[in-house]
Amino acid sequence: MVEKRARDRDPRWRTMGDKIARNRVARWVIRRANNRAVSRRPPRPGRGLLIRSLAWGVHLYTALGAVAAAGMLVLLVRGGASAFRGTFLLMLVATIIDATDGTLARRVRVKEVLPGFDGRRLDDLVDWLTYTCLPLMLLWRAEVLPAGQEAWLIVPLLASAYGFCQVSIKTDDGYFLGFPSLWNVVAFYLYVLDLPGAVALGIILLLSALTFVPSRYLYPSSRPGLLNKLTNIGGVFWCALLAWIFWNLPSHSTPGSRVPDATTRGLVLLSTLYPLWYLAASWTITAKTWWGRRLRPARGVE
Length: 302
Fold this sequence. Notes:
Helix content is 74%, strand content 2%. By secondary structure, the chain is mainly alpha-helical.
């Protein structure tokens, strides 16, 4: 300590220390400037065109959901069991596109490469059609609700419009806020399970109300994590199971049941485990979040 104090008093040591500090600062400034220069170098010939082509390719991939939506509309106008089966297959295709295009967009960095094109708006337009409008139209065309009760479908339509327009529909920690308008899933299960009309209407109104409740729902493609990984892995098997079910749905109307095959009915019931698990996991996270918020003020008072 004595030697250090002596050095601090000695002007020669102070001068040398200042020089060392200045040299370190100078080296840091030069290194930072070099890094900026490297990052600002123009891309190699052809590389910029390749990156832009990849970015436009991702947007085109997202737009394929709109093509699927057009096919759904044609089938729904046609009507019939065969058309409904084709509609469900196209819904599955649109869902797979929506689940994967965000990952591709982040890999290619489409926002930086094509700042003048809003891929998120395109994604919302496609989702509005494939997750809300066309599934609700299927419920109407398939006569899932009792006769004279079809006007109730306006309720989920407006609730979904509210949800899509919420700025905070996706939280910073990677969740959907409020029921995320999964009306394609709801339409499928209400169609194949052939529930009583009053029960189907009750489910629709309940899920519509949950759109306005600030509960958290899993958003598996938003960020890594054990729960999201498990959800993604389960989603792959679930989609494969749904594809098999869709393919085996009858192409003609059958009195008494929309799924007359016992094996297919069993697989439909088995497939419900995944959406039930999704809801249970989401509501558990919501309960923990709400409970944690209630405990914080109490701990602050103590």
